[in-house]
Amino acid sequence: MTNLPFRAHYLFPAALASVLFLGSLRIVLDNLQNSHHTCAFFRPLSGGYRVIRPPIRVSDEETIKDGCNIFEGKWVQGNGSYPLYTEESCPLLVKQVTCQKNGRPDSSYQKWKWQPDGCNLPRFNALKLLEILRDKRLMFVGDSVQRSMFDSMVCLVQSVIPEGKKSLRRDPPRKIFRAEEYNASIEFYWAPFLVESISDHATNHTVMKRLVRLDSISNHSKQWEGVDILVYESYVWWMYKPTINATFGDLEHVEEYNVTIAYKRAMETWGKWIETSINSHSQKVFFMTMSPTHLWSWEWKNGDDGNCFGESEPIQRPYWGTGSNLDIMGIVKDVLGKLRVDVRLLNITQLSEYRKDGHASVYGERKGKLLTKEQRSDPKNYADCIHWCLPGIPDTWNEILYAVLLQDYRVS
Ligand SMILES: *[C@@H]1O[C@H](CO)[C@@H](O)[C@H](O)[C@H]1NC(C)=O
Ligand SMILES: *[C@@H]1O[C@H](CO)[C@@H](O)[C@H](O)[C@H]1NC(C)=O
Ligand SMILES: *[C@@H]1O[C@H](CO)[C@@H](O)[C@H](O)[C@H]1NC(C)=O
Ligand SMILES: *[C@@H]1O[C@H](CO)[C@@H](O)[C@H](O)[C@H]1NC(C)=O
Ligand SMILES: *[C@@H]1O[C@H](CO)[C@@H](O)[C@H](O)[C@H]1NC(C)=O
Ligand SMILES: *[C@@H]1O[C@H](CO)[C@@H](O)[C@H](O)[C@H]1NC(C)=O
Ligand SMILES: *[C@@H]1O[C@H](CO)[C@@H](O)[C@H](O)[C@H]1NC(C)=O
C-alpha cells in the first residue's frame, strides 16, 4: 500500500482525463457508419385512423415483488442467456466499447447476470419496451458514461426493428435513435455537469480546463422540456481535482470551489428546474448514481499496484471502492429527498462496484483512436478503467430501468 495516492478518492489521475472527452469527440468521429438507416424519416402515417393496440401483458414472472430492493444482490452465471446482444449484432456500437473486436482475449465479462436478493428481474423484452415508449421520447442526459447507457439501450432494442424503420442521427449535443413504427425516440444529451459549463460543446471542449456555471441550466433545460422519460447522471467530470473553478451569479466572477460544495449547488440548480418544469403525471424522471471506476487494484487485491487491466472476474464479497465518493452520494440523497417532484433513484453504484472486470481497459480508445500496440502494453498508463465494454454492465442498468418502466406500466 506504499504508493497509495494521497486522497485517492478525489483525484482521478491526469492521464485519465484524456479518456473523458472522447465521448463527445466521438459524436463527430464515428461518422455515421449507420447512415443507411437514416432514410426512413418523415414516413407518412398510413391511414387516417388510430389503431387500437392490445395492452402489453405483464406476467407474474415479470412482476417485481413489493419491497424488493433490486439494487441489492449478486452477480451469477448467466448460463448462456447473456449477453443480450453481441458486438456483431449491433452495428451501431462505436469502437470505443467493442472490446472483443479491439482484441480483448476474455469474454466472460459479458456473461454474468445481476440477481437481486429478494426477487428476479424480468427478462429484457425489446418489443415490450418499444410498446412502452410508443409516441414517447426517452432521453439520457449526462457524460460519456451515460452515453454508453444510451448506446446499450439502442443495441438492446434495435435488432427487433426492421431495416428502414429505424434511424440514428446526430444533432449535437443530442444523438437520436428513432423507431418509426412506434413513433418512439431514444436520445442522448451531452451535459457532463448537468448545469452549464465550458465543456458543453459536444465536439470541441477542453478537458483539463473546467469552468462550471453552477446556477445556469436553461441552455440545456429548454431541450429537456416535455421529454416523457428523463434519465440523468453526472459525476466523473467533477472528480478530476478536489476543487473546481466555477461561477455562481456573476459570470465574470470565477472562484475555486470545493467539489462537494460545487456539486451540491449544481444539483440544487437542477432540482429547482425539475420542480418548476416537470409534470409528474405525464413525465418520469430518474437519477443514476455514480458509475464506479476501478483505477487502483490495491483496493481489491492487497499490495497490488495495477488497475482494472487483466481483471476477468467480478468481486464476490462486500466491496466499495474509494472512487465512489460518499459525500457526493449523500448530496444526491439529500437533494432528491427534498424535491417536491418524484425523481426515482437508479442506485447502480454498488452492483457496478463488483465489476472490476467490465471496463474497456486497454481495449478501448484514447483521443478518438484505438490504442496502439505499444500503448496496450503499458496498461498502467493507458488502461481506461472508467468506461465499460459493450455488451456489458450498462446493459444491466437498462434491464433495471426496463424493469421499473414495466412495473409502472402494469399499475397504470
Ligand atoms: C445457472 O445455473 C446454476 C447452476 O445450475 C444456477 O445456480 C443458476 O441460478 C443459473 N443461473 C441462471 C441465471 O439461471
Ligand atoms: C409522436 O410522438 C410525439 C412525442 O415524442 C408526440 O408528440 C406525437 O403526438 C406523436 N405522434 C403521433 C402521430 O402520435
Ligand atoms: C447559453 O446560450 C447563450 C445563447 O446561445 C450563450 O450566449 C451563452 O454563452 C450560453 N451559456 C453558457 C454558460 O454556455
Ligand atoms: C475549438 O474551440 C477553440 C476555443 O474555443 C477554438 O479556438 C477552435 O478553433 C475550435 N476548434 C474547432 C475545430 O472548432
Ligand atoms: C482555476 O483557474 C485558475 C486561473 O485560470 C487556474 O490557475 C487554476 O489552476 C484553476 N483551478 C482548478 C482547480 O482548475
Ligand atoms: C470539501 O468539503 C468536504 C465536505 O464539507 C470536506 O470533507 C473536504 O475536506 C473539503 N475538501 C477540501 C479540499 O477542502
Ligand atoms: C445507494 O446504495 C448504497 C448502498 O448500496 C447506499 O450506501 C447509498 O446511500 C445509496 N444512495 C442513495 C442516494 O440512496
UniProtKB/TrEMBL annotation:
InterPro entries: TBL, TBL_C, TBL_N. Keywords: Membrane, Signal-anchor, Transmembrane, Transmembrane helix. The keyword Transmembrane helix applies. Its main location: membrane. GO terms for molecular function: O-acetyltransferase activity. Residues 67-120 form the Trichome birefringence-like N-terminal domain. It is a single-pass membrane protein. Residues 121-403 form the Trichome birefringence-like C-terminal domain. Pfam families: PC-Esterase, PMR5N. It is found in: Membrane. The keyword Membrane applies. One of its GO terms (cellular component) is Golgi apparatus. PANTHER family: PROTEIN TRICHOME BIREFRINGENCE-LIKE 31, PROTEIN TRICHOME BIREFRINGENCE-LIKE 9-RELATED. Belongs to the PC-esterase family. TBL subfamily. This is Trichome birefringence-like N-terminal domain-containing protein. It comes from Lactuca sativa (Garden lettuce).
